[in-house]
Task: structure prediction
Amino acid sequence: MKPLFTIGYEQSTSTAFFEALQRAHVGLLVDVRAVAASRRPGFSKRQLAAGLDEHGIRYLHLQKLGTPKEGRVAARSGRAAEMLRIFERHLNTPEAHEQLDELTALAKASPQHSGGICLLCYERDPAFCHRQRLADELQARLGMRVEHLFCSPV
Result:
């Protein structure tokens, strides 16, 4: 089984971001931000999807796997542990559970010859990001090996 990749675009340029995805042979980027908007050029939903398309990478936004507003506020305030507790509660909602099942099915069905799947969020360090929790869940469900991709900082 292919590894599951994760990536955060904090402190990165779009060029470095796309290079990291291409080096890893990512075929599908799954955006797990609740709000797929960004002040960083190239990382808002439409711009990101277009850039990925230019690089031959598919895009999927699973909004319900994003951190709720109060969790994002905690994260911006440097309270990562609180953000993760809030996200854990959110993950038990029917909407989040449904999209987690969808992500699991995508990962399970991903053929060996196609590019890997990569989870996207903002945080550079996965230890301070909810995507680590999602990666842990897919690892538990499917036995996937998780690899964190890092972009060169600006």
